[in-house]
Specification:
This protein is mainly α and 52 residues long. It contains two helices and no strands. It has helices at residues 6-18, 21-45. It is elongated, with a radius of gyration of 18 Å. The N and C termini lie far apart (54 Å).
Amino acid sequence: MTERSLPARTFDWVFGVLMRPRIRRLRRWAFLVTVPAGLFGAKALGIDLNVR
């Protein structure tokens, strides 16, 4: 087997960490909090998010 490059090993390690069950739950909840916060922030800044 050939030795893998450092970027490839780093990517595999990061992907493995992000796919752990506890981290996956945290990412799901973070998404559910971030989307409404972004919408409120955009409204406060006067950004129109309607697609026409």
